[in-house]
Amino acid sequence: VHSAGISRNLLGYAALCLIALAYLAAANAEGYVPFASPTARASQHTANHFHK
Amino acid sequence: LSARPGERAITCPTCGAPIALRALGASVMVACAYCRTQIDVSKPDIQIIKKYNATVQQFDLPLGARAPLRGTTYEVIGAMVRAGDSGPWTEYLLFNPRAGFRWLIDDQGHWSLAQTIKDVSAIKPGFPGLTYADRAYRKFSEGHADVSVVVGEFYWRVKVGDRVTTADYVAPPFMLSQERSATETIWSVLEYIPPMEIAAAFKISDPEPDGIAPHQPNPATATLASIKRTIWASLCLAVVVQSITAFAARERWIALGDYVPAASRGREMVFGPIHLEARRSLNELVASGPLSNGWVDLDYALVDKTSGASYEFSAGFEFYRGIDGDGPWSEGSTRSRALVTSLPRGDYDVVVDSSSGDARGSPVTTPLRLWLFHDSVPWRNFWLVCAVILGYPFYLLVRRASFERDRWSESAFNPYGTRR
Questions:
Q1: Higher pLDDT, residue B393 or B156
Q2: Which residues of B touch A48 (CB under 8 A)?
Q3: How far is A4 from chain B (nearest CA, A)?
Q4: The pTM is what?
Q5: Residue A32 and residue B385: Cβ atoms within 8 Å?
Q6: How confident is the model over B129-138, as pLDDT tens digits?
Q7: Residues in CB range of B78: below 8 A, 6 or more apart
Q8: Where are the beta strands (DSSP E) in A1-52?
Q9: Dist CA B153 CA B41 (whole Å)
Q10: pLDDT tens digits for B160-193?
Q11: Nearest neighbour of A40 by CB, restricted to B227, B340, B375
């Protein structure tokens, strides 16, 4: 039971690391970082406004 | 109770109960399981050592019980209760014709398999206490042990009231135990056996251990050892991914021009067009200038000239300085930095609007230099992922330290400080 608990911890941790690495690869490829301040957003309306 | 092949059957001189001698030729005394009479079996004429009619002690493991432990099947041939400063514990004498004698010790639900060390010269002084079989042991306790109940057969004459002086040294999951009497000194090495393993081997109910045993393995240590490779592999992969990202990043400064907040007076100023060549990129828009005792709030819009999409964001900075009784002082910054994420490739206009104020409350007349740092390396992702990867190991390190403090809080030789 003890070794089963360790295996469960290992699997859970390995899954967490995989998710984190997948996030790193995807976010880097997209040029994304969290907590970017301020957050940019696309707005067709504002673009038209600026280009009047 | 009939004797098996290789055993010798005798009759208890007190109650007449049959007694099977399992470790024939090795045992020198046996205690009757029925009336507790202690009998000398070392000579042909069996003699009574001591009658013991106290209430029968209920042992968790009955005499004659057999179970596989660490690859060898042992039989319980004797049991005794000993008591020391920390309370009573039970020691079962196990026997296997090939492996010989072992001790199975139950101390408040914590079980250990012990073997007498024949070559005591292998025990050497060394940091932090003793070394034996390539392990360093630290002293945990010393005291005494008195035999209070004894039943079954033993390879030496043991009787109620026997007292030895003890010293224990730990290197989890092992413990070195020294027992000194007036005539001899015996060393044993104990290995911690998880209670569940004992319950499964002897088919008894799952014991509930009380507290932490001196040589109980630290569960966080085992978990840390199991994930060590995953930690390093994940960190290495993160470094590889980040290195590829950094190598491919363009990291190009694009000068946009000077912007005077007072000159715009509520009108947007357009800089560009600029070309962003990365497919999707992280960009930083930096504004800096020799601002003094003033503030600036900048509203930006990056407008894609092809699609018309606009990415709006704002940033500001303020800087004040002066002289007081303590001398010159200053606070704030003379530059602002705004991160714009996931900008698609394309040609952009940078539209800037602002509000500002100087010491007199008028719009700032200082020119600000505007730059766009294109395709910046997103280090924030890397540090975030490193924190996620290292978070669980860090938690385990804290748990491990807490477990060790709890373990050693019961010791008079606590390396963490005074006894609780």
A1: B393
A2: 308
A3: 11
A4: 0.74
A5: no
A6: 899 999 999 9
A7: B30, B31, B63, B92, B93, B150, B151, B152, B153, B154
A8: 41-42
A9: 9
A10: 888 999 999 999 999 999 999 988 999 999 999 9
A11: B340
